[in-house]
Every structure is written in structure tokens, then in C-alpha cells.
Amino acid sequence: LGLGNDEGPDALEAPVRTINLSELTEDYVAQDGDALTGTMPVDENGVPKYYIRISNGANIILDNVTIWGDENATSEHTPGSPAIYCEGDANITLSGISNLSGCWGNFSCIYVGNEGTLTIMNANPGYLDWGFQPDQLFVKNTGKGAGIGGCKSLPDCGNIVFNHSLVYAQGGEDSPGIGSYKGGKCGSIEFWNGCYVEGRGGKNAVGIGCGSKGYCKNILIAPSVDDVDRNYAIGYAGEGADAAFGHPGDGKCDRVDTNYFAIAYCSKEPTDLMYMYEFIKADYVSISPRIDINFSELLMGDGYEMKPSDPFPFMRRTGNELVI
């Protein structure tokens, strides 16, 4: 994907123009240099009136964007498109806190075209922490699609790259937080240059990878030099899924390479806040620098606990530190 070193893609330069979503009167095709801001208007049923498409090769900014759909919407009152549809390659820079949440019917919140690569990065450098980093993206789907990736109407998706970014993504039924829908295919999912990314799977789906009977090419958690650029990738298995990274039992993932830090939660009940086991499933699993094994299933251990009072998943250490 062109990220063979720790430099990553270049930062986005000053935008050409600012587009306020609250002022839209029709769907908008974002062009290179656009800065999107504001709240998308909704109709009387709580469905967004308009949608965003990002043209192939565009660099855009999400500046405190809100695109919200009713989480309890009925099938006849759900969106007719992903909130953001990437036509091909796209770079999204996060500035401030953006939120794309709700029931997206048969669509994902952010869809990545089959042949494209979506790269998500933060505008501000520095240590990534929910309490201190001003640039964040929250994506939650209660329909039948991923937070970022594929969906029932568009099950396959392209490559997804996180480059120094703070992202929380939750998938809907049969959908991972990040990756391809049930029976669909996705390309590479990569983490570079200091990420804190959480992917929570919907029913029968892993947190990061693919849904039931799906395929994920590979997941790469890139090397880190120090705490500032350590890559945290956290996967939560959905109800009925037996893995949090890679693929569920009836899917396929070619390989998972985690060089520093991956946390994978797997439990029988998605609301279980007790200790959860950590699972990665792929044809080939590489954990550097100490272990390099070719197992279809790897049990890494437990020792984490969620704080139920937190509005989004935070972790606190309850056991020995896992740094492999």
C-alpha cells in the first residue's frame, strides 16, 4: 500500500474550500482539498437527507462533522447510501471530533470502494489518548454494515489504513467494526505511526477483519519505536463470533502481523464486562519479535477489564502487561 516505512502519507495541506453540511440541499461529491464541517440535516424519520461521496484520489478534512441516523429506525426509514462513500483512493484527515452513528440499513457508515485505499489520519501529532487528543472519529452502525468497510448492499471493500489516528468503529449485524460484510471480501487493514483504533464486531463478526463466510487479505499492526508511535489495535468479537481479529470460524484471513500491541476480546455475551480472552484467527499469525508461528488459532491470554461507566470503551490493566 505504499507504507513500507514509518513515514506514512503526507499531511493534508490547507483546504481549498469549507463545506458546511448543514447548508447542503443535495448529495455532495467531495473534491481534493475540501474541508467538511457541521451537522447533516435529517428528515422527519431521523434519516440523513443527503450523503457524501469522496472522489477518487481526494484529500479531505472532517472537521467536527456529525452525520446521524436514528439507531432504532425501521427498515422503511433507513438511509439509501453509506454516510460517506469513497469512490476509490481517499485520504481523510480528522480535525476535532466527528461522529457518524445510527442505523444505516444495508449500508456501512464509511464505505471503501473495492479497488481503493482509504487512509485516515489525525491533524495533530502527539500521543493518542481519548482524554488528550483533540482529533477523534466515532463510527457506530446498528444496521447491516461495518462501521468502516463493507455492508449488505456492498459486501466487498478495499484497503483501510490508519496512520496516526484515533478511531472507534462499531459494526452492525454480520459486520465487523472495520472490514468486510458477511460473505464479502476486504483488502489490507493496516495501522501505522501511532494509532489507537477500536473495532467492535456486530453479531457473528470479528472486531477487525471480516464477517461470517467472508475474506480478509491481511491485517498489519506496524512496528513502533516508542510510546508516542505505538500502534494500539483493539478488536472486540461480536456475539456468536469466535475471534476478534482476522476471521470468524467459517471465514478466511490470509495473515495477521502484529509487531507490538494488539488486544483482542472474545466473550459469549457482548455486554459481558468481565475478563475476556484474546483471539486472533488467520492462516498465518506473526507476532514479532519473539514469536513467529503458523497456527490457525492463537490464544494470547487475558487481563483486561472495561469500565462500564465510560461512554466509549476504555481499558484499565488488571493483569500483567501484554507486550509481545
How does this structure look, described?
By secondary structure, the chain is mainly beta. 0% of the residues lie in helices and 42% in strands. It is built from no helices and 29 strands. It has a 17-stranded mixed β-sheet that branches. It has a six-stranded mixed β-sheet with strand order 12-15-18-21-24-27, with no helix packed on it. A hairpin with a 3-residue loop joins strand 25 (284-287) and strand 26. The chain starts with 16 loop residues before the first strand and ends in a 7-residue tail after the last strand.
Short account of what is shown:
The protein has 324 residues and is mostly beta strands. It has strands spanning 17-20, 28-30, 34-39, 52-54, 58-68, 84-86, 90-95, 97-102, 110-112, 117-122, 136-141, 148-149, 159-163, 166-170, 178-180, 185-192, 196-200, 208-210, 215-221, 232-236, 245-246, 252-258, 261-265, 278-281, 284-287, 291-293, 297-301, 304-306, 315-317. Residues 2-11, 268-277 and 289-324 have low confidence and may be disordered.
Would you identify the regions where 5 or more consecutive residues have pLDDT less than 50?
Answer: 2-11, 268-277, 289-324
Give, in order, the helices and strands.
EEEEEEEEEEEEEEEEEEEEEEEEEEEEE
Major β-sheet profile:
17 strands, mixed
Helix content: under 10%
What is the tally of beta strands?
A: 29
Give the averaged pLDDT, no decimals: 77
User: What percent strand?
Assistant: 35-45%
Oligomeric assembly: single chain
Backbone CA Rg: 18 Å
* Individual helix count: 0
Termini separation: 25 Å
Rough shape? globular
Structural class: mainly beta
